[in-house]
C-alpha cells in the first residue's frame, strides 16, 4: 500500500491462448496497477502477444498445471507486496470488464476471498448442462463441513480476488485443477472471510466433454486428499466406526446363531473379523494422523 492506496494485480494463468490473451490483457490493464500472465508451457505465441499487450510474463518451461500457475501468481503477489490480487482465465470466457466487481469486496476490506459466481445471476450465463451438474457436485464436496455463511455457489469459478492476508497465508499444494477447491478449503481453515458476487461467463465454441470429466475427477481426488490430511480423524474415524459397529452387529448375530443351531457360519464369522480389524485399524490410523498433524501445526 502506497500513501493509503492499495496496489492491485491481475494474474492470468494461460496455456496456448494466443487467440484471446491480447484482448484480455488490454482490458485488464484498465483496472489494476499490473497484469501478470503465467505462461504455463505454451507452445504457441501466447507469451509474445501478452508481452506486446503490456503484461509481465512469467514462463513455465513446461506445462505444470493450473494449480502450479496459480502458485506462481501467489508467489509473485507476495514478492511484490500487492494488496489485492485478482485471477481470471485468459481464454475470454471471463469478462475482464467485471474485474472491479469481483475486486470490490476485497478492496473495501469486506472479504479476504471474493468468488465470481456464475450461478448468483444467470443473466448472460449459458453454462452447458453437463458442466452445471459437474460444478454443482464438486461445489457440494468443497462446501462439506463448512458453516452456512462460508458456503459458495460456484466452487470451481476461476474468477476470484484475494486480499493481502489471503495472499500471504494460502499455500497451494495441488498443481492441477483441484487448486480451486483447495484454496477455499484452506481459506475456511484459516478463517478467511469469503464472499461471492455475480459474474457472466461465455461458453461460445466450448463443446468438449472429455476435459470436464478429467477436470471433475481430478478435483474430486484433490478434495479427498485434502480431507485425508486436514480432517484425518473424520476421514478415517467415521468409516472405521461404521465398520466396527457393523462387525459387532454381525458378530452378535453369528454368536446367537451358533448358540441356537450349534453350527458356526464360517463366512459370516470371517466377515465379522475383517470388519472389526479394518474398523480398528482405520480408527487408529485417524488418531495417529490427527495427533501428528496437530503436533506439526503447533511446532
Give me the count of strands. Answer: 7
The largest pleated sheet is described as:
7 strands, mixed
User: Roughly what fraction of the amino acids lie in strands?
Assistant: 5-15%
CATH superfamily of the largest domain: Spore Coat Polysaccharide Biosynthesis Protein SpsA, Chain A
Give me the side-by-side strand order of the main sheet: 3-2-1-4-6-5-7
CATH class of the largest domain: Alpha Beta
**What are the low-pLDDT stretches, counting only 5+ consecutive residues below 50?**
none
CATH architecture of the largest domain: Alpha-Beta Complex
Enumerate how many helices there are, as a single number.
Answer: 10
Give the C-alpha Rg.
24 Å
The outline comes out as elongated
CATH topology annotation of the largest domain: Spore Coat Polysaccharide Biosynthesis Protein SpsA, Chain A
Number of domain modules: 2
Give the helix proportion (percent range): 40-55%
Structural class: alpha/beta
Euclidean distance between termini CA atoms: 32 Å
Instruction: Provide the succession of SSEs.
Output: EHEHEHEHEHEHHEHHH
* Overall pLDDT confidence: 84
Properties at a glance:
single chain; 299 residues; alpha/beta; Spore Coat Polysaccharide Biosynthesis Protein SpsA, Chain A; 2 domains; seven-stranded mixed sheet; 7 strands; 52% helix
Characterization of this structure:
- The chain is of the alpha/beta class and 299 residues long.
- It has 2 domains: 8-230, Spore Coat Polysaccharide Biosynthesis Protein SpsA, Chain A, CATH 3.90.550.10; 232-298.
- It is built from 10 helices and 7 strands.
- Strands 3-2-1-4-6-5-7 form a 7-stranded mixed beta sheet, sandwiched between helices.
- Helix 7 (179-189) packs parallel to helix 8, helix 8 (210-230) crosses helix 9 and helix 9 (232-261) packs antiparallel against helix 10 (266-298).
- The longest helix is centred in the C-terminal third of the chain and has 33 residues, at 266-298.
- The radius of gyration is 24 Å and the shape is elongated.
Amino acid at each position: 500500500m502506497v500513501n493509503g492506496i492499495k496496489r492491485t494485480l491481475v494474474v492470468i494463468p494461460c496455456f496456448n491462448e494466443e487467440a484471446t490473451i491480447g484482448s484480455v490483457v488490454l482490458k485488464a490493464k484498465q483496472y489494476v496497477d499490473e497484469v501478470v500472465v503465467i505462461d504455463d508451457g505454451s507452445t504457441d505465441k501466447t507469451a509474445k502477444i501478452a508481452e506486446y499487450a503490456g503484461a509481465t510474463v512469467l514462463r513455465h518451461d513446461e506445462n505444470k498445471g493450473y494449480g502450479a500457475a496459480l502458485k506462481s501468481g501467489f508467489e509473485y503477489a507476495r514478492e511484490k507486496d500487492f494488496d489485492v490480487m485478482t485471477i481470471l482465465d485468459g481464454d475470454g470466457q471471463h469478462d475482464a470488464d467485471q474485474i472491479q466487481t469481483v475486486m470490490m469486496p476485497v478492496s473495501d476490506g469486506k472479504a479476504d476471498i471474493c468468488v465470481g459466481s456464475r450461478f448468483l445471476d444467470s443473466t448472460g450465463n449459458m453454462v452447458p448442462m453437463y458442466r452445471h451438474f459437474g460444478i454443482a457436485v464438486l461445489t457440494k464436496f468443497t462446501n462439506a463441513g463448512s458453516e452456512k455463511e462460508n458456503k459458495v455457489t460456484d466452487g470451481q469459478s476461476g474468477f476470484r480476488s484475494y486480499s493481502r492476508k489471503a495472499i500471504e497465508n494460502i499455500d497451494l499444494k495441488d498443481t492441477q485443477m483441484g487448486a480451486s477447491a483447495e484454496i477455499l478449503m484452506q481459506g475456511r481453515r484459516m478463517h478467511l472471510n469469503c464472499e461471492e458476487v455475480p459474474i457472466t461467463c461465455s461458453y461460445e465454441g466450448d463443446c468438449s466433454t472429455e476435459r470436464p470429466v478429467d477436470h471433475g475427477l481430478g478435483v474430486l481426488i484433490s478434495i479427498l486428499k485434502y480431507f485425508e490430511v486436514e480432517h484425518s480423524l473424520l476421514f478415517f474415524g467415521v468409516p472405521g466406526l461404521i465398520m466396527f459397529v457393523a462387525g459387532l452387529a454381525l458378530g452378535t448375530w453369528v454368536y446367537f446363531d451358533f448358540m441356537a443351531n450349534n453350527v458356526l457360519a464360517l463366512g459370516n464369522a470371517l466377515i465379522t473379523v475383517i470388519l472389526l480389524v479394518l474398523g480398528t485399524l482405520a480408527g487408529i490410523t485417524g488418531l495417529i494422523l490427527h495427533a501428528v498433524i496437530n503436533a506439526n501445526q503447533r511446532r
